[in-house]
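RECORD TYPE: inverse folding
INPUT: structure tokens
STRUCTURE:
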């Protein structure tokens, strides 16, 4: 079997921008692990289990994609899974500045490489935080997140 890559994120919730990166990355590696970060310091809208479930539903048609979750350092999770490549999506220069530091630290700690993929222009403005804010204030995120995710957001935020 060829290389496996790891695509980590909070995915709170998964957006069409995330799916774009995941789908494109899945075509470049034999296997792709999409790993949901459980960060106790953050107050996510959805639990880790809910985020994993939404990703599984959204990615059911990609047979080489596995959905998992982790806590702690990403590089330690990658090492445990035997993965030497992390895939990160970039929307803007500001993303690059932060992600470059993380990539260099991950390489220093464990020799893990980071591959950066630029977001497709149609999704460059989209973030999970922005999608949540739109729904919170009564806007519609149809076409920005998968339909099942949109429904779950509306229910959670009292709009459904």
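DESIGNED SEQUENCE:
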């Amino acid at each position: 079997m060829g290389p496996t890559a790891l695509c980590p994120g909070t995915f709170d919730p998964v957006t069409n921008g995330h799916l774009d990166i995941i789908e494109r990355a899945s075509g470049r590696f034999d296997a792709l692990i999409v790993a949901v970060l459980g960060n106790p310091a953050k107050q996510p809208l959805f639990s880790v289990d809910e985020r994993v479930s939404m990703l599984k539903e959204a990615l059911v048609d990609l047979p080489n994609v596995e959905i998992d979750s982790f806590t702690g350092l990403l590089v330690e999770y990658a090492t445990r899974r035997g993965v030497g490549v992390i895939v990160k999506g970039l929307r803007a220069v500001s993303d690059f500045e932060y992600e470059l530091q993380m990539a260099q630290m991950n390489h220093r700690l464990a020799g893990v490489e980071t591959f950066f993929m630029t977001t497709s222009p149609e999704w460059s403005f989209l973030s999970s935080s922005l999608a949540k804010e739109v729904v919170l204030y009564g806007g519609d995120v149809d076409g920005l997140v998968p339909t099942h995710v949109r429904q779950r957001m509306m229910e959670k935020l009292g709009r459904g």
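NOTES: The first strand starts at residue 4 and ends at 9.
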